[in-house]
Design goal:
By secondary structure, the protein is α+β, with helices and mostly antiparallel strands. It has one domain. About 40% of the residues lie in helices and about 20% in strands. It is built from 7 helices and 7 strands; from the N terminus they run βααβββββααααβα. The chain has a 7-stranded antiparallel sheet. A hairpin with a 5-residue loop joins strand 5 and strand 6. Helix 1 packs antiparallel against helix 7. The longest helix has 23 residues. The radius of gyration is 17 Å and the shape is globular. The protein starts with 6 loop residues before the first strand and ends with a helix.
């Protein structure tokens, strides 16, 4: 299985440890990690995988195109996701957004806020998470704490294009809360540092695409969460 390295444009990323979270929060993460792995196993038993489900019936796979066509959007939660590819170290990645439902009336669609991206290998398994500069997604920029709050409500609760994939994506956001929190807070610190030197032009600087990246091996992360839950004290 492919691996991603930790990456940062500036200061080193902190350790995405579950130890700073309450027992109740870790329990939610552990349940979600088990749910994500269960979705992967169910697809694998049928000779399928997460990425394959997204690409099925979508025609030729073209770099930078969105899959599925039209993206996936949950009108109740405002959660949006699409898959595409353009990085050599992965097969592709999911971009996850929050787009407020009230902003999606005809003719009034507003820009969303990017939560995080999930890197996938060619076997359809997650291998990392990363954050991006504003120009990459054309998003409405919100502070890390605002985005973290939005991420807690991420939910795709319908069956298009795949009920298992939507369950998996929802569970991934829950189980990877420490990674997402770490990446977003690091993103804000690095952008603040660069703003001091370059001003608002930094948001459109094509030289800065990925701001921070953390590797992920989901079975290992699930074990870490379970160990925290069962450890004394």
């Amino acid at each position: 299985m492919a691996r991603l390295d930790t990456f940062s444009i500036g200061e080193p990323l902190g350790d995405p440890s579950p130890h700073s979270y309450s027992a109740a929060e870790v329990s939610v993460m552990a349940t979600a990690a088990d749910e994500a792995l269960s979705c992967q196993r169910e697809l694998n038993r049928a000779g399928r995988n997460i990425v394959g489900e997204i690409l099925e019936g979508q025609g030729a796979f073209v770099q930078l195109d969105h899959y599925p066509k039209g993206d996936v959007y949950d009108g109740e939660s405002g959660s949006q996701v699409y898959y595409h590819a353009h990085r050599r170290e992965e097969h592709g990645h999911f971009h996850l957004f929050h787009r407020p439902p009230q902003d999606n009336r005809p003719g009034e669609v507003k820009t969303p806020s990017h939560l995080v991206a999930i890197s996938m290998d060619r076997w359809g398994a997650p291998i990392g998470l990363f954050t991006t500069n504003r120009w990459v997604t054309g998003e409405r920029w919100r502070s890390a704490e605002e985005v973290i709050a939005l991420a807690t409500g991420f939910r795709i609760d319908h069956d298009r294009p795949s009920w298992l994939v939507n369950r998996w994506i929802t569970a991934m956001v829950k189980c990877c809360r420490p990674q997402i929190d770490t990446l977003l807070r690091h993103r804000d610190r690095e952008i603040a540092r660069l703003l001091a030197d370059q001003g608002d032009a930094i948001y459109e600087d094509r030289r800065i695409e990925v701001i921070g990246q953390l590797p992920l091996h989901l079975p290992h992360w699930c074990k870490i969460l379970q160990d925290v839950l069962t450890s004394p004290g």
